Protein 1
Amino acid sequence: MASETTNQLANQFAGKLLLRSEIPLSEDVFQHCVSSGNFTAVSSISKNLLYCQCNRCGNREPGLFAKIPCQICHREHHYCRKCIEMGRVMECEPLYYWNGDQPAWATPADPCSWDGELTDKQQLAADRITQAIVSQEKELLIWAVCGAGKTEMLFPGITKALQSGKRVCLATPRADVVRELLPRFRQVFAGVSIQGLYGGSDEKEKVAQLILSTTHQLLRFRQAFDVLIIDEIDAFPYHKDPSLSFAANRSRKQISTMIYLTATPRKEQRRRMLQKQLNHMFVPTRFHGYPLPVPSLKMCRTLKKDLARPAPPKLLTEWLKQRVNPERQLLLFVPTIELAEKLEMVLARKFIQLGWLPSKQAITFVHASDPDREEKVQQFRRKETFMLLTTTILERGVTFPSVDVVVLDAGHDVFDEAALVQIAGRAGRSPDDPTGEVLFIHDGKTDAMVEAVSSVKAMNKRGGFR
Amino acid sequence: MCDDPVCNDCKQWATYYYDRDVLTRNYSVFVYNDVIQDIVTKWKYRGDYVLGNIFKQYIYQTYKQHKSSLPDQIITVPIPLSGQRLLERGFNQAKMLANFLPLKQEELLHRLHGEKQSKKTRKERLSSKNPFYLLKKVNKPVLLVDDIYTTGTTLRHAASLLKQNGCPDVYALTLVRG
Ligand SMILES: [Zn+2]
Ligand SMILES: [Zn+2]
């Protein structure tokens, strides 16, 4: 093979861990790469006496393996059910990684065209991130309150990394966030090759130095990144799915820097920070300098009855009457899709009757598998709708300019402490309207609610507010 | 299954074959819906083989309900995949369904590789060439087994080939009526 094609192949495949069906090469070229040692095969499912392990996703749960009478190799063997959405991993089909020359990434002199300014607090964090990258620290956690402007804090560090020819990946739990960040990064790092990876992305075959990805897509990488930034480390599904940290660890190079971002670290991370096992930096204030809105808890004894009918609790309509700023849009969180579906019409009717909503079109409802989800969120952001009813899918990663936030049935299990803090963090994100009301309506205080409130207060205190 | 014992589709086919549909009857277990579509997608296209076991009792029950209207000595013939598709998928979903039936099974048909049926329009499917050839003649009645009945073309291609070669009667059992 000519060396330029080998270079191309190195570019395309270095750092990846793929099934044969994910390698778009003719059989001839592929076989040549295998026999010349450029592709190395590893067994996709390893077994010992006690368990099977999927070498793509790290799964060891016996219940997540099944047997198939395979018509390819004509015997019965295991396949992994855990990562099957990304293409089935079978015992008889190995995974391949590129073992040839490593690609040389560009070393752009001046890759970043962002001309915004960081606040002093943001600058401190940005410097700390840059330092970690330059000195190849293994791990760093940035604990930044909701609305601190995390993305901007990353720009200087990413710039430094790109300048020295490093490969960078920013992984986030949600495809929405990847889609939202992509155009921004393309604008800021205009001369850099950038790839967006998520379930429905059409850029899977592209090759790039800077990758924005969902955490799931990391399952296809191996020793790829010099810098791996994991956004929302505390978020579902990362904190619940061991595959994702398995994949994240495998996708970084041996010498590399992992940067975690979170507004609401979990107990495990707090423990590690406290015991000084995890370097971290706290960013206590929002970029506009105002404190986080503290949620107020409102007990509603008739809540269960109201929601069963369903009807808006009286308390909610009372509160709506006396809001500080009636111009603000309303973001209303409910625990289940079912409830949201039922409430949409009821609320519309009631609020039109009371004169708060002009028409049924002023209220919408989104949930995880809503095909129009993106469009509805955009409409709300453009203020074309007044009230958005949502499940926890919008608890984080979205910014609306001016909203009040209500959680209906805040005592429900889906609202854990982190979720409640994040939800509260949706209010007051704009410098033009930096405050906002946050209301948790419940029929009995839960630990999650109490901890959420005290955690918001504690963060404000660390930010110098009283 | 439809309330009318003969559905519009079968009536159309009867006219097409001058009142003698090559397929005596098709039994479908489910009418297409979102839940079934979801399971079938995961099972067949994502390749989660064991999910197919969910259908075992339903297939068996449908068979039991209609057993009396089927001839004795009937054997099952699963609709095959092309060799290439079988290599991609690792298993034949129709054969898995056929395995759930307490009948003798024979793989009499071979399928040539072609365009995916699911990528064709109804018209293209109806006018497509017969993709099957016969591996062995059979003189017993046959119950064809497949996962999805969309236009019925595939089953009728198979059925006409069997009948031309001595098979007295062809029935079909499909998991989903699309
Ligand atoms: Zn096999
Ligand atoms: Zn797996």
Protein 2
Amino acid sequence: MTHIDEAPRPATAVAPAQGRAKKLPGRDRATVIIMVTIPLVLVVLLVWVPALLSVVLSFGKWNGFGDLDTIEWVGVQNYQDIFTIYPAFWPAVQHNLIWLGFLFVFPTVLGMLLAVVLDREMKGSRFYQTAFYMPVVLSLALIGFIWQLFYSRDQGLINQVFHSQVDWYGDPDINLWAVLVATAWRHTGYIMLIYLAGLKGVDASLREAAAVDGASEVKTFFHVIFPVMRPINMVVIVIVVIESLRAFDLVWVINKGRNGLEVIGALVAQNVIGEATRYGFGSALAVIMMLISSIFITIYLRTVFREERNR
Amino acid sequence: MTYETPVATPAPARATPPTRKEGGVLSKRRGTIATVIVALLALAWLFPLLWALVNSFREYDYTQANGYLSFGGWTTSNYEQAWTQGNFGLHMRNSLLITVPAVLLTLWLSSMVAFVLARFSYRFNLALLGVFLAANLLPPQALLIPVFRMFREVPLPYFMSDSGSMLNSFWALILVNTAFQLGFCTFVLSNYMKTLPHEIYESAELDGASVWRQYWQLTMPLVRPALAALATLQVTWVYNEFFWATVLIQQGNKLPVTSALNNLRGQFFTDTNLVAAGSIIVALPVLVVFFALQKQFVSGLTLGSTKG
């Protein structure tokens, strides 16, 4: 029996490309599959599988040297230890939070203001922009070294000028703040760049209309520019949170994240490449990092995808 | 903070005209005040690098005797000493051997995914983009332990790695850097490719061009500006990468130059002028790239935001 009334089913998984139905010939389908699969395998193998394995390992005790069967499964013991008896954990959490707060209060606000000012017709705007974002191309580890020229107890500029004897990187009460100043040096330019890019999306006619209506500069900023920047703000929030969580390079070059510079990222590394390798324990710390960051990754992806759909 | 977060600022769907007006002119008095403040801040921002540059050319003994606020004692010997003592020739070569393949591989792989994402709307397109983008955002420390162990288990022939495994080899760093940077590049490139006119593909199809030809001979030449911008960004990011190099390379002479500085800390931290010279040497390649390709660098960061 012939089904003449049968509707032609979409033969392949290929949905209509941008509104037009199409079917790929076999060879092209293979090409497409290969083009996606190779990169996908790399990302899955080096990011997603390790992420999953971190979760699994976090429930075990393992020194990492023996085979997999030397893992002793201990349930949530690692997490319990981290929260109750690991002396470095709560200071690290506190430091990461201070890091986050500091980045929001100083470099983020300053970077945003700089972007708003530099977005205007101003003599030498190009030069100023360059000055602010030059540190962005330097690595944080290198920035740690450059700021040593200011912070060194015996040879640093600060102590020379003020005839003081402060060991800025060594004193556990202040080294975190010294590090944050150095971080801010780079971060401000980064935030400024993001806002400058975002401000390019502000329709000039909006601003002209506001000017014609006689709105003041401040009013224009809050009623015209700021609303347009709302999606950028969201992205900046995510960036600052994730960067604060990842804090590692600077503290590692200074003292490997000890003595006042504990951050979660450095604790994970200490448990793997230190003298005492505790893979399970380090994994539990890693999972805590992952859980926090996944909240913000979700927010970020939602922002991005909303844009994709609106396209 | 080795991996930058993609600056993917969602912007209104309006295409940015090439000659956009800047954000209007400030009133005169406000303008002057703003200029003075910004100029002073800019000088403050330049100061650390200038200070490093100046002191890298000064004799240690001179600055010890006269303090750093003095003037004089000029020399270039810090550079010679730092270069030999820090073995910078070797480490620069290591950085080159890691950065160039990693950047090329990243651009190639991400352009393929981006092409598929932009050209065909598979149902799982968003999910696929999510897999790549989220990977870019995960803290690398969270993946350290399994990656470290996996690389130790993967044997490599000795002509590829004298450690006999992925651990402690450049291959590990190339692959890890590539895997992490794919998300950002895919995102930017697919956005860029979506702006290409559809008609070119229609006529290509009429001519019977295969998907591969459409990708390689049609799309790739058209996205060259985006590729150039991304290449610039990636070179600076991979060159600056610190975390993975520190944990995956245990043999001092295999470290890329950014991490090698840390290895030299013991010898360097006592002599600030030597630290300055070493820092300038490490900073020089990225600063050269930055100044030579400044336009690319900035447009790379803004590509994600303005949809090409």
